Amino acid sequence: MKKVRNWIRYFLLIGINLAVMVLFQSYLNFLLVIGLLLLPVFSFYSLWRVGETASVRIAGPQEPMERGAELYLYFLVDNPTIFPLINATLSVRTANSFLGDSGTHRLNIPMRAGGTTEVTYPVVVEYCGRLQVEAEELVLMDLLGFKEITLKLHEQMECLILPAGLERRQEAGQIYDKGVSETMESRQKGYDFSDVSGIREYIPGDKLQNIHWKLSMKKEELMVKERVSVSAMQLNVVVELANDEQMRLEAVMELADGVTRAFVAQNLPFTVHYYSVNRGELVSCYIGNEVERKQWIELMLYDTAYAGFGTVEQMFRQQNPSAQSYLYIGYDTVAGTAEDLIVGDQGTMAVLRS
Amino acid sequence: MALWKKKQEEPHKKDTQLARGIYLTQPEMENGSIVMRCFWRCVIVFLLTFGSVGGFLSAFRISCNLGLVVFFYILLSMYFSFLYSTTKLLYRDLGYILFFGIFVFVIYSLRIYANSGFYSIVNAVLKQAQVFFELSGIREYEAPIENTYLTVAIVAVFIGMVIIIVLNIWIYSTMSLFFTAIFTFPVLLIPLYMKLLPDPFYVVCLAAGYAAVVIFKANGHYLTFAWDASFRVRGFKKDRVAYTQDAKIFRQVLARIAVLALVVVLLVETLFPRALFAAKFKNDVLREKTAETIGNFVLLGFAGLFNHYPATGGMSGGKLGGISNVRPDYQTDLVVSYTPYSNEPVYLKGYTGGLYGDNQWESLYTDGNSSYDRKIFEEESLKKEAELLQKRVEAQAPDSASARMDVLNVGADVAYLYYPYYTMFDDYGIYDHHRLMPTSQGLERKEEAQYAYYPKLEWGAVMEKPPIGSVEDTDINPVFLDVPFKNQEVIQKECDRIGLEEGMSVGEIVQRVGNYFQLHIPYTLKPGATPRNQDFVNYFLTKNRKGYCAHFASAATLIFRNMGIPARYVEGYAFSLEMALASDVNPDKEYADYYSGYSELGESTVLDVEVSDANAHAWVEIYVDGFGWKPVEITPGSYELATESDFWSAFSNILGGLQDGDDGANAGAMKGFHLGRYLWLLYAAAAVLCFFWLLGLVRVLLRKGRRYLLCHQKDRQEAMIARYADVCDMLRICHGDFDRCRSHEEQIAFMEDRYGMDVNRQTMTEWLEQASFSVRRLEEEQLKEVEQFVREAGRRVRKTAGLRKRMRLWKR
Question: Mean pLDDT highest for which of B209-213, B520-524, B779-783?
Fold first, then answer.
């Protein structure tokens, strides 16, 4: 509509000038008409030249940021030509891939000649996840507002937004102790419910408890079950990455962050389990220190939240039937006793399941 | 505390939501200070003003102190531009008031300079107009201060100041090319009409200014305020983050445009120069059709455009009808040195009209056939009659006389000679009296001539003869018996009314006509103009029934012709014996040098009679058998009609102007002003109003059409959002406080409160926000409910709106 208006205005202008030129035999209006006729040529040429050479860059923080903190993105639009354009519109897609939310907006800027137009974009991300900012296209409009050209861009940047949960040191310590003691007690009774990591031929010295008798019978040679190291099986933490309309995943993430940070702070190793939508399987990570913990959270944030609470717990139980106890961090679980429970926001909780 | 809580509830109220949980606070860009942003706008204002005023001056080759002009233009442009850089509107208003105070002081102090400069400009324009329109005489204004270089610059600054103030407002608020052109281009039409062109430099300034306005109007980003942030969020969905303005881009665009304008102007001037352009046009329709009107305008001001203007007396060259009233300035036009010899008035013949038509008396000159024109002049100047009288003098006839008259033209139209009856010219090659008098100094405006003439004091029985009726056996041009077809009926009726009959003598006819006019048709200097498309004589005799000498002379000429007396219309100057006797005696001149022969007054003295434009006159020449052409006075004695004593009488006269039967008996102070003659003005005003009304209607319909398309688009969710926006728009019109509602929730609460909408506010808010801002689409049921809510809200708003609000809603 705006373009049509501009065209109408332009032709009206030409018409009036022509009329005055003919009526008054005015050389002044002749000059103006020539100027008006050449103006679109200049305008289109400028547009074409800028379109040929323009480029867009996006810069942002290199390190992960905490949620709620203001982070600065920079849109740098280069125009090395001598032709300025008043209207350039960047189509910017902003997404949190972890939550699966995205939005597209347009950023209107001038294209200054022979330099870079820099726009500082202060952004606050309320939910943790992976912030993705992509400049999808750059629409350039000529000086007379007659024509637009669209440059397809694939310039993007991303930044991880980490949860900022409160460290629940005391509650986490108690739960850890309880969870670990249950596991050890079971093992001492001869029930080793630690995970089977593989099956191999018997090597002298292997515990008899680990012989896979049924398979040995079939293969007619002794086969043993290889078990995960007991030290790495101190506590299983199962994190639910399901989300809903109330954005309770955010509360889960905060709780998980707070609890796991407390474990690491007290040198309590643990293994976390979460369901990866991207990989379509349950992913387990051993966490022994803060670096590993951060890596795990970042890894998790690269994934995507899913709908339906309880998914991860169900899968964990299926894959680890021997697990005697584990810490489930999620929502709407069967409430345990006060010692088994760390309550988070929005009805989320970390509960020790036996 | 409560306030703090509220802030906690809406932490991102002022931010822009980019996606769920991602907010943009306030983007920034280095866009230059407000001062720089204003400065580049002031450059546009400067270019346009300087291009316009400077172009005008350069076209008329009026030189002035350009340094002073440029300095003040820059200063004024910057001052008014920087008023927009103030942080409060109050400061801007104070700035205007302060300037007004300074302006009053300055204009008062420099009023004489300004007046002088203005008169100098007007004189320069009139001088060009005189050449272009071939006007015979233009009055020059006297400039009290002769230093035009300074005074013109001062006037240019004052004129430019007005343009700068107005342009500044339009460029800042709407970047309107229409108003920019309205305030800068019309002044250039004056030189353009006269085929004068501004210097290329000013053309570049203008072209660059106009191009800048066109470009920024097309692109936006021209509004600037001190309180503006770098970016503004736009769009109903608030998904467009647009920069407000940028000083650097303004500068860059302006620089490119200026260079482009310069290149274009130089290239075109080189490749297609002005002379080549002018040669391309064969016809000049505009000037052919309007030159006369514009010439009238130049001579008489705006009144000249409406065929209704006052005249200051003097010669009209046979042109009739346009003059509504005559207001002589009593300035001396001629100084006549002669000796009085008779009680009869002295006539100085100037112009002879033979052919009546198109409301003018045309002369018989061809301006091409010199030998024919010379014959015409000899006949017109009454050579034959002069020779006859000369012979009587030589024969020493008892009533014969010879005389001399010196005529000094000091203010009369130089296109004509003014000579007495019956002059014998030494050289009849002077016939082309449409040209300036050649003198030893070249072409002189002022004429100083000595005429030898033979006064005819006794007419004997020639007036007792009947009209000749036919020119078949004479050398008289048959045109002098011609009555145009369209006048025949009116003239015949008038003859009947006067009681003219066949068989009457010439003297009797002349006397009856004179008496009738004296008794029945009043003389006035304010008869009112003849309406366009009406015949001057017919209108005078049938409708107006009042007039001055030109009316009576014209009518009488046709009446005489109708009665078979060859007659023609004559213009010139006439003065009475009383006036002559009241003049100064010239002691240096001898009576004997000026008069010899029979005199009714005996030996008198040489008088220098100052003849003013009030003595300009029109009379009739009739042909009398046995002698030749004789001047006849038929204009009644001069007396003015009583003026209206009160406003209502004058007003009723105005309305009376609409009636055909107005006989002028009640004419007075406002006589000549007939509303009927100005109906076209009312029509024009109505047409303009209709045009703007139609324009408004088209705009409203276009807006409605666009809204309809948006609200009925294929995507139902988008259509619903558009409808919701429409409802919000309606609410804004109906309730000024609706704008305070920033969020959907507040808006819905407003609707609940004012229109009793029964809705689950939280749910509806969520759905609306989801539809507006989220990538997730509403489910069918949800969409239906929201649609229903929006439709109902719209219905209730429309239903409860008052008449005025409904009108405003319709006009959206």
Answer: B209-213
In terms of phi and psi (left: phi > 0; alpha: psi -120 to 50; beta: otherwise), the region of B629 is: beta
- Per CB-CB distance under 8 Å, the chain A contacts of B275 are none
Q: Is A332 helix (H, G, I), strand (E, B) or coil?
A: coil
ipTM value:
0.81
Q: How much is the average pLDDT of A244-272?
A: 86
What is the rounded (10 degree) CA torsion for B761, B766, B769, B771? -110
- Option in A84, A99, A120 nearest B252 (CB): A84
- The CATH code that applies to domain A53-162 is 2.60.40.10
Other beta carbons within 10 Å of B596: 15
- Give contacts of B24 with chain A, Cβ < 8 Å: 121-123
Closest-CA residue of chain A to B263: A35
Contact A31 B265 (CB under 8 A): yes
Mean pLDDT of B289-303: 73
Q: What digits encode the pLDDT tens for the residues B689-725? A: 888 888 888 888 888 888 888 888 888 888 888 899 8
Distance CA B29, CA B242 (A): 11
Nearest by CB to B19, from A29, A94, A120: name it. Answer: A94
Lowest mean pLDDT among B207-216, B299-308, B509-518: B299-308
Substitution target from A4, A11, A21, A25 for chain B, most B beta carbons within 10 A: A25
Please state, in angstroms and rounded to a whole number, the distance separating the CA atoms of residues B504 and B500. Answer: 7
Give the fold, CATH level 3, of A169-193+230-353.
Rossmann fold (3.40.50)
CB contact (8 A) between residue A86 and residue B215: yes
A118 touches chain B (CB under 8 A): yes
CA distance A110 to A105: 17
Number of neighbours of residue B308 by Cβ within 10 angstroms: 23
For A108, which of B243, B274, B285 is closest by C-beta distance? Answer: B243
Structure tokens at B114: 């300004």
Nearest to A88 by CA among B107, B242, B537, B294: B242
pLDDT band of A192, cuts 50, 70, 90: low
For the entire predicted model, the pTM comes to 0.61
Closest CA to A9 of B102, B5, B215, B554: B215
Q: Is B802 exposed, middle or buried (0-12, 13-18, 19+ CB in 10 A)?
A: exposed
